[in-house]
Amino acid sequence: MAQSFLMEVCVDSVESAVNAERGGASRLELCSSLLEGGLTPSLGLLQVVKQYIKIPVYVMIRPRGGDFLYSDQEVEVMKKDIELMKTQGADGVVLGALTEDGRVDAELCMELIGTVDI
Fold this sequence. Notes:
The chain is an alpha/beta fold. The protein has a single domain (about 10-115), classed as Copper homeostasis (CutC) domain (TIM Barrel). It is built from four helices and four strands.
């Protein structure tokens, strides 16, 4: 029995998105600033990528580089980014948050996922 797998490729430009799809990617993770580990891309980048790509495009929701401990204001930005990305055709989002002791902040992640509803 052949195993199927999903190949998701992180991209940060229209050119890299097109090349990833041509190369067999099943889904894209659209980011900006890959050198910083990926940040939330612009709405313009999402819109243009969606014009050229047929595979699902998931958008990174990360307001800044560095750690994954977010202030209340940063969480507010993340929620707004999720809402805006949904309205512009994102097929899903990629996100994460940690607690001060380095564990996944499941409560915050679930709160953010609750705003996704894509």
